[in-house]
Amino acid sequence: MTQTCQPVTELASDWFRQHYAWLARRMGCKTGCRFGAEDIAAEAFAQLLQRPGWQDTREPRALLTTIAQRLLYDTWRRRDLEEAYMAWAATQPQATLPSPEERALILETLTSIDRVLDGLAPKARRAFLYSQLDGLTYPEIAERLQVSVRMVQKYMTQAMRLCYLAEAS
Question: If DSSP codes are grouped into helix, strand and coil, which group holds residue 137?
Fold first, then answer.
């Protein structure tokens, strides 16, 4: 009997029993945290089951590894953003810091922006951040990046386009 002949829920249960512990151990080696690894493995299965035609996958471990690796990178990126935010917050007067709820929203927004900007070349990403976070003018950005003002305009157009597309989706 082929896998596609099994009822979908039975196949999903079989795959979970066969591959979950293996994936959690594999992610545990990378994270150093059993609980975080288990979360990543569970989320990888959840994302796998949301993919159309997942039951036709010939190499479930390969696909699960790819999904889990992407989740792991997202986790690391979020941790790095949180650490950068906390370092910044440590330099600010306590009275001006946002509430825990606002902090969570800020970190979620930063994570979303980081994900969008990941599609840019490093200089284009820096140009966008110099403009939006530091308030630099295009000539100032051009000087810092050692490119022409016209190139900064192109970088900004690329970044704004990605932001627009992310907003639209």
Answer: coil
DSSP state of 146: T
Determine what percent of the chain falls in helix, strand and coil, rounding each to the nearest 5.
Answer: 80, 0, 20
Token readout for 131 is: 């403009």
pTM given for the model: 0.65
Q: How many residues does the chain have?
A: 169
Domains and CATH numbers, the chain: 1-97 (no CATH), 119-169 (1.10.10)
99-132: pLDDT as tens digits: 889 888 888 888 888 888 888 899 999 999 899 8
Q: What angle do CA 66, 158, 144 make, to 5 degrees?
A: 105
